[in-house]
Amino acid sequence: MLYIYWDPELGVKIGSLVLRYYSLMFVLAFLLGWFLIENIFKQENKHKKYLDPLFFHIFLGILIGARIGHVVFYQPELFKEDFFSVFLPFQFNPDFSFTGFQGLASHGALIGGIISIVFFVRKYKPEFTFFWITDRLILVTALGGSLVRVGNFMNSEIIGKPFNGEWAILFAQQSLDYGALLPRHPSQLYESIGYLVTFIFLIFIYYKTNFKQIQGRITSIGLILIFAIRFFVEFTKEPQSDEIISAFGLNSGQILSIFPLIICLLILFNNSKKSISSK
């Protein structure tokens, strides 16, 4: 059987510096998100002066949360072995090198994003509420997740388990880490496509339904879809590192996805009760 042999460059070279595709997709996600939220602000008569501080809060919250979340959940030994690499885009041990911000966990990004939105809303209330912000940013979250997973695929990161299907991928750069060049699930693309479909669906319900009138509804729907996709795609992935959290045959990513799923289901259920009682 013919498989797809995957061995691209790690990124765009600028002299001796390599901008990894993962980092480039992360930046692209923020740029596209900025334009999308700018359009929403115009439609809903929100002053543009709030846009830059909103994205400043979100950028810092997500970046810091995602990085610390990755280290805490998947690579805690870095706190001891290379402490400053946790917070800076450099490796200091065993050799100094520029790495970019590699290792960003979506669950940590969620926590960091929530904290940053809380600070933003406290600063700019009563102009904004927490769920008003999240019901719009969830659109960006789904699109950003799709782009970031494309970056993971380009850099041969978060590869899938061995698989003999017609669309299996031979990840040449990862063959030494796993002992052999085996055909594998393109798990990054499964996740990317799932998030892209989620983004399209959320755009539809935002612009074509009255769901945004009920605060928290679009947020809960979006996060349910995102973490459900993450939960099921994890079955096709190789472990990212030593599993710090595992139970009942589930890995860290799956267990950490269960909690936001439960919370969002409760929010959605509560919103549905309010809708019924108001009729």
Q: Compute the gyration radius: what is it?
A: 20 Å
* Sequence of strands across the biggest β-sheet: 1-6-7
N-to-C CA distance: 59 Å
Low-confidence stretches: none
Number of helices: 8
Question: What's the total number of strands?
Answer: 7
Helix content: 55-70%
Give the overall shape: globular
Largest sheet properties: 3 strands, mixed
Structural class: mainly alpha
Task: Give structural notes.
Strands 1-6-7 form a three-stranded mixed beta sheet, with no helix packed on it. The protein has helices at 21-43, 51-74, 78-81, 106-124, 130-154, 187-208, 217-233, 252-277, and strands at residues 4-6, 11-14, 17-20, 90-91, 97-98, 169-171, 183-184. α2 packs antiparallel against α4 and α6 packs antiparallel against α7 (217-233). The protein is 57% helix and 7% strand. The mean pLDDT is 87. The termini are far apart. The chain contains eight helices and seven strands; from the N terminus they run βββαααββααββααα. With 279 residues, the protein is mainly alpha-helical. The longest helix has 26 residues, at 252-277. It is globular and about 55 Å long.
